[in-house]
Amino acid sequence: MSNNLKKYFTTGEFAKLFGIHKKTLFHYDSIGLFCPEKILDNRYRYYSHHQIELFNVIMQLKRLGMPLKDIKFFIDNRNPKMAIEFFKKEKKAIDEEIKDLQRLKKLMDTKINLTKLGINFTHDIKIEEQEEERFIISDYINETEDEHDIKTYTEHLKYCFKNQLDSGYPVGVMINAKKLSNNDFYHPDYYFTKVEKNYSKENIFIKPKGKYVVGYIKGYYDTTAFLYERLMKFINENNLSIDGYSYEQGLIDEISVQDQNDYVTKISIKIND
Q1: Rounded-to-integer distance, Cα 227 and Cα 265, Å
Q2: Measured distance CA(56)–CA(50) in Å, rounded
Q3: C-alpha distance from residue 70 to each of 22, 34, 58, 66, 126 (Å)
Q4: Model pTM?
Q5: Is residue 175 predicted with pLDDT exceeding 60?
Q6: Using CA atoms, how far apart are residues 207 and 109, in angstroms rounded to an integer?
Q7: What pLDDT is stored for residue 171 in this prediction?
Q8: Taking burial as the number of CB atoms within 10 A of a residue's CB, which of 153, 154, 256, 271 is the most buried?
Q9: Which residues pair with 215 in a beta bridge?
Q10: What are phi and psi of 171, to 5 degrees?
């Protein structure tokens, strides 16, 4: 090899530099996206160190999922003004993706914490201090011939999805004190979804900080009435009074188990301090 060619990379060397297969460089050459700086009479291809930065940009854009035809259009028509606008646009897309990934990470953290709580549940009824929580609640749940008010439930989900409020918490139900005192555990008042502390909208509901009677039950959702009965018995036997609503929330559900009998549900009833 001449001294001049020592300044260049062979196809294999250039591919190794970026951790790709030589066929990738051949393909990019064939579509005119990225061509070697020198091609000898024997068809050997050589790439210059001046091409490294440009190829690195191509690789990063491809990593972002940009189609090769769009990358080629940018490369073929690039100029300083276009580069600024192009990278501003890509930066905005990256910021949105980061936001989505952060939300997904939060969802995973929530699922991990709820599942751990569900795995370690006990059958004991106890009083615990709970912190304030913020909920998005549905319209009032109507009594229907079906097991649930599907229309209200669906509208609640639509709102949460539209506003990207799904952070891993399953939809729960609330029952008011009067129904609980009358042992009416089958007609909840609202569906709710927990949201972050910094979320503030007109229809936010504050679950107050304070003392709650808490219990857990394993089984499908139709078994929760047995837990409500135990909770109310505990409240009555200890001369406690209900202050607001009960909050029923799934901890282990179809996400982590195949058998519905392995579901775990937590119910908290607010009592006067």
Answers
A1: 9
A2: 11
A3: 22, 13, 10, 7, 61
A4: 0.74
A5: yes
A6: 22
A7: 93
A8: 271
A9: 267
A10: -70, 130
**Alpha-carbon distances, residue 40 vs 5, 32, 158 (angstroms):** 10, 18, 62
**CA-CA distance, 224 to 243, in Å (whole number)?**
20
For the chain, give the secondary structure using H, E and C: CCCHHHHEEEHHHHHHHHCCCHHHHHHHHHCCCCCCCEECCCCCEEEEHHHHHHHHHHHHHHHCCCCHHHHHHHHHHCCHHHHHHHHHHHHHHHHHHHHHHHHHHHHHHHHHHHHHHHHCCCCCCEEEEECCEEEEECCCCCCCCCCCCHHHHHHHHHHHHHCCCCCCCCCEEEEEHHHHHCCCCCCCCEEEEEECCCCCCCCEEEECCEEEEEEEEECCHHHHHHHHHHHHHHHHHCCCCEEEEEEEEEEECCCCCCCHHHCEEEEEEEECC
What does the pLDDT look like over 229-254, one tens digit per residue? 999 999 999 999 999 999 999 999 98
From CA 95, how far away is CA 101, in angstroms rounded? 10
- Give the separation between CA 70 and CA 92, rounded to whole angstroms: 17
Amino acid, single-letter form, for residue 154: T
Residue 77, both tokens: 């028509």
Tokens of 244: 């607001």
Distance CA 189, CA 205 (A): 13
10-63 pLDDT tens trace:
999 999 999 999 999 999 999 999 999 999 888 889 999 999 999 999 999 998
